[in-house]
Amino acid sequence: MAPHDLRRPFKRPAISDQQRRRELALLRQAQQRSDSHNRARQLASSLLSLPAADQPPSSPEPILEDQPIQIEPASPEPEPEPPEAAPTRDLNVVQASKLRGLEARRWFARQLMLPEWMIDVPPYLDRDWYVFARPAGMRCFVVSSNGTTVSRLRNGSVLHQFPSLLPSGARRKDLSGPAHSYCILDCIFHEPDQTYYVIDMVCWRGYSLYDCTAEFRFFWLNSKLAETGACGPPAAYHKYRFSVIPIYDCDQMGLQAAYAGVVPHVKDGLLFYNKHAHYQTGNTPLALVWKDEFSSQYFLDTDGTGQVPAQQQVVLELQDDGKLTTSDDPPVVFGCMDGEFLQKSNLRPGNLLRFAIGDESARLHDGRLEILDLQFVAKVNPRSRAFADSYSKVFFQYAARHSPLRIEDLIASIQPNLGDNSKTTDVDMDD
């Protein structure tokens, strides 16, 4: 592939199928309305009662180094494989309560709404989308019920257990309520100021918001949270402060405010939410994350030492047939490992593996990113993460190294003098 010198025209065609997947996601949510009240009640119960996933309480999961592979002679009698279990993504809360270790971490991670990385600028960005600055910190669920408040990280481990001014969040008469008066908030814990920044509301006083639009959820978030006093300073019955984040319509003024406005937290890029999107668990193209070198310390992925590696690195999951896939549903296949190497290295299906991608080993073909060669680096420690990279993250990191989607491109996409608002303004990346 020729050296990357990719020029961005003012208006350019989309380079991926992200918009098509957005349209399908909106169609699916219109066709499939879940039993959201029962779902929220069971999730709240599990978040409160389940033991931490192989972690001591009130201790976030440590960041561990990847494990080098030791090649060993092939064993004449391979070890028996454990019996197959139902895929964790298909389990309900009761079944998931029996999970431990990696499977428990994966199940908990899938209960959050996980944004895709912005590859293409969505059409009608100013009309159909919100934007806000993402706080740097630990993503978690916060649930208040029966006089206590618990926060759990994506891996299911307990971050904090504390009293709060959330409904039923502390053992006080004025805060207590019936058993159904529980709340679930989607938060980012910002350690420098010990604050939970609330980015979404999943359930409020027992009322499920899974099947409500982002427009309604954000309205309730801003109105209901302020009524509780939970945004006030810490006190005897309120150990941590909660804070809402300014959310803007994604017009030119709103985008500039989110990008350049002063905020009390460290920024880690921008989040974009489709106004019509329900709270969809797992990866969704109806929520997007975007970063550049000015809005995030982690614009490009770093290694264990905090340095940006010379080559892009990806984490993929090893499947039964040796294929290497992303965390998407359905997964995207980026390669396949040699069976002889797998046997000698004792790698097993489900292992997360880190690979490097050379500049000559990736290309765009018909709107899809193809990786022609993966250079094995190491096995990822299973306690450091639960999932492989998503396809959109791999694509975003590839574009970030060669022709990043810049803030000027986002602003240009919502210029009032663009003649055809139905066109997306996306990167034109040639092989």
Automatic annotation (TrEMBL):
InterPro entries listed in its UniProt record: Snurportin-1 (IPR017336), Snurportin1_C (IPR047857)
Region (Disordered): 1-92
Molecular function terms from GO: RNA binding
Record-annotated membrane-spanning stretches: none
Name assigned to this protein: Snurportin-1
A Pfam family annotated for this UniProt entry: SPN1_m3Gcap_bd
Biased composition (Low complexity): 41-56
Chain ranges of the Snurportin-1 m3G cap-binding domain: 111-287
BP GO terms, sorted: snRNA import into nucleus
Name of the gene this protein is made from: LOC105034202
Function: Functions as an U snRNP-specific nuclear import adapter. Involved in the trimethylguanosine (m3G)-cap-dependent nuclear import of U snRNPs. Binds specifically to the terminal m3G-cap U snRNAs.
Primary residence: cytoplasm
